[in-house]
Amino acid sequence: MISVQYDERGFSVSLNGTRLLAHTKAEPCVYIGRAVEHVDMYRGNFDISDRIEERLGLGDFSIDESGGSSRITLSRGFRALADRAWPSRCPRKKAVW
């Protein structure tokens, strides 16, 4: 059974007593960011690397428990970034670390 325990400092998600996620504002469990990728290919061999330009922790959270389920929304400040869909025409790809 999945359970969610939380207080004003953070939350944790457990499955049958085993902790799957732990989150606090100081140590967020989800980050969003931007990176520049570099891909080289020679005769079917690929060398893929990236350089992180920006990494933002989604430290703020809200939990809605209604209808017998829990919905966790992660954000940074007042804007809910985790629920926002990134535009498909962005000039740079977005990644989640």
**Global structural class:** mainly beta
Distance N terminus to C terminus?
Answer: 27 Å
How many H/I helices?
A: 0
Radius of gyration equals: 17 Å
Calculate the mean pLDDT score and round it.
82
**Strand/helix succession:** EEEEEEEE
State the share of residues found in helices, binned by percent. Answer: under 10%
Beta-strand residue fraction: over 45%
Strand order of the largest sheet: 1-2-3
Number of strands: 8
Tell me about the largest β-sheet: 3 strands, antiparallel
Low-confidence stretches: 80-91, 93-97
- Quaternary state of the chains: single chain
Overall morphology: elongated
Summarize the structure.
Strand 2 (10-15) and strand 3 form a beta hairpin. The protein has strands at residues 2-6, 10-15, 18-24, 31-42, 45-57, 60-66, 69-75, 94-96. It has 97 residues and is mainly β.
Question: What does this 3D model show about the protein?
Answer:
There is one protein chain. 0% of the residues lie in helices and 62% in strands. By secondary structure, the chain is mainly β. It has a domain at 30-96. The chain has no helices and eight strands.
Any key phrases for this structure?
single chain; 97 residues; mainly beta; three-stranded antiparallel β-sheet; disordered C terminus
List the helices and strands and how they pair.
Elements: E1 2-6, E2 10-15, E3 18-24, E4 31-42, E5 45-57, E6 60-66, E7 69-75, E8 94-96
Antiparallel strand pairs: 1-2, 2-3, 4-5, 4-8, 6-7
